[in-house]
Task: structure prediction
Amino acid sequence: MKKSLLSVITMAALMLAGCNQQRGNEPKQTTNDGATVQQPAGAADQRTSQPDVDDMELGRSVDANKRVVDGVDDFSPKDTIYVSLKTDGAAANSEVKVRWTYQDGQLVKEDKRTIPAGGDAWTEFHISKPGGFPKGDYTVTAYVNGQEKGSKKFEVK
Result:
């Protein structure tokens, strides 16, 4: 009887010890007050492996943080046209691309940038034409790692 009870206790202790080893591998996050919070396994990987575009802004100028200052969607032919993209959760070497098209999909310009890994970031793209853009409807479409993430329509009047 003592031998079987000892075996059961030993098995239970081994099982608990095995469970505790897995918990130490989970990512940790530090809060503003310096506390460390255990995250579920895979949480950090999931955020950085699926970059997304959270916001897209059009305008005539950007600030030092690459954000559009004056959000508009109507432009003059000689304006420089900016689009700012807010991305989140970018993995290392994520590529953001924008395609500027005119009316029926005619390509005006295509630009690419590599964005920093990790949290939120703003990326700026722009187009200009010294002789002026033809009047009409345009679209700018954003892609992250080849996947379309959104588009904005604007007009040159």
